[in-house]
Amino acid sequence: MKDRYDIIVVGAGPAGSTTAKTAASRGLDVLMIEKRQQIGDPVRCAEGVNKEYIRNFVRPDPAWISAEVKGSRIYAPNGKMVEMGEELSGVEVGYVLERKVFDRALAMEAAHAGAQVMVKTRASGLLTNNGYVTGIIAQHMGKSYDIKCDIVIGADGVESKIGRWAGIDTTIKPGGLCSCMQYLITDIDVDPDFCEFYLGNGIAPTGYIWVFPKGKNEANVGIGISGFLPKNQTVNDLLDDFVKKKYPKGKIIELIYGGVPACGTIERTVSNGLILVGDAARQSDPLTGGGIFNSIWAGDMAGKVAVKAIKSSDVSAEFLQEYERKWRAEIGKNIDTSLIVKNRFLTLSDDDMNTLADSLENMDLKTVSLLGLVWTLFKTNKKLLWDLRSIFKDIKEIKGVDFDDIENID
Ligand SMILES: Cc1cc2nc3c(=O)[nH]c(=O)nc-3n(C[C@H](O)[C@H](O)[C@H](O)COP(=O)(O)OP(=O)(O)OC[C@H]3O[C@@H](n4cnc5c(N)ncnc54)[C@H](O)[C@@H]3O)c2cc1C
């Protein structure tokens, strides 16, 4: 380890490794540190990701693909199933990954591009000078090191401290964190072609249960809850009830707990000499909890802007605004929309969800476009869609639809 680099990336998840790879492959001197001794382990993820999106950044490798699915099946509280093609299924559906291998592969790509990777190395504070972040304090094998750099990248996940240390408010307010629990279950019959989602206030109030296949006989079965449960109810109880009924003979071989930022975008993700990326920047999708793809996408943007800043000898927050503008224009827009949908979803009764599922009954959702889906929901559920009106402001091109109509609903 040297005492100075161009950039130091804290955290070797998808966000950190992508940033490190992008920056190192463009000639920067990069150090990426990871507090755990093994990258990607333990996994805190259902491991679903949209394959078309991910292919823009990573070449698929069978070593980290557990299953390739065709789409998703969403079960309404009354059991009615809506089947959707991959395109409509969001950022979580396409590949079910083997993240222990995937995260390590991304870190190896960063290393191959020239980044130095150090595991069992934890950032415990920031170095600052004249209002600028100028490096980190790192703990490695019982020793403390001051390591300097031009830009620190905070890619330290949901538990991020880097932003807070730099004076950025990354607080997740109550209700903004999705609490998750997941089993890896084996010896069960699952359809390897579909990710399944189960909705209903009895099953998973303010959230959903997922079944993501990892082959024919194995699946990640988990629950994510965004709101507050009554005192006598826990996520463990809810998931156990579901598993007992659905997979009575299944064998649980892994258990994980974890949180996903489902709070929407935060006010600022850059400061002088500092960029936040991935879950540390609260860039996961508030509705689905999917964060892998956004982390990779934002990591790529962060790496490119860091290169520009260092080449221009300007790492001020003003210069780094380019990253802020870019990710907000792309990822941020999707997050804002998802947050509106999530907040509306949280108010739905089981009857509302059943009505929505009914309205989609005769549609072929394997081939329909997103706008076609929106139109069907619009026609049948005007009241339910009232809160989504801000989304429609941008949609003007569906033939025969008078979007002003939605403004006239009582
Ligand atoms: C139960 C669960 C299910 C999920 N399912 C999905 C899914 O199916 N699809 C999907 O897209 N997303 C899913 N997510 C979200 C997804 O896992 C995250 O959005 C994604 O991992 C974020 O990537 P990241 O690189 O920002 O953070 P992380 O992957 O969390 O990586 C951050 C890294 O930083 C390290 N670190 C933290 N602090 C320090 C420090 N001080 N010094 C050094 N290293 C540090 C951590 O050890 C970690 O390795 C799920 C999350 C949970 C909890």
What does this structure look like?
This protein has 410 residues and is of the alpha/beta class. The protein has helices spanning 14-25, 51-55, 99-112, 162-165, 235-246, 292-311, 317-345, 350-359, 370-380, 389-392, and strands at residues 4-10, 30-33, 48-49, 65-68, 71-75, 81-85, 95-97, 116-118, 121-129, 132-140, 143-154, 177-186, 194-198, 207-213, 218-225, 251-261, 270-271, 274-276. Strands 1, 2, 8, 9, 10, 11, 17 and 18 form an 8-stranded mixed β-sheet that branches. A 7-stranded mixed β-sheet has the order 6-5-13-14-15-12-16, with helices on one face. It has a 3-stranded antiparallel β-sheet with strand order 3-7-4. The longest helix is centred in the last third of the chain and has 29 residues, at 317-345. It is globular, with a radius of gyration of 22 Å. The termini are far apart. Residues 395-401 have low confidence and may be disordered.
Low-confidence region ranges: 395-401
Counted up, domains total 3
Number of DSSP strands? 18
CATH topology of the largest domain: FAD/NAD(P)-binding domain
Query: Helix tally?
Result: 10
Named CATH architecture of the largest domain: 3-Layer(bba) Sandwich
Give every kind of bound small molecule, once each: flavin-adenine dinucleotide
**Which structural class fits the helix and strand makeup?**
alpha/beta
The CATH class assignment of the largest domain is Alpha Beta
Largest sheet: 8 strands, mixed
The helix-strand sequence is EHEEHEEEEHEEEEHEEEEHEEEHHHHH
Mean pLDDT: 89
Overall shape: it is globular
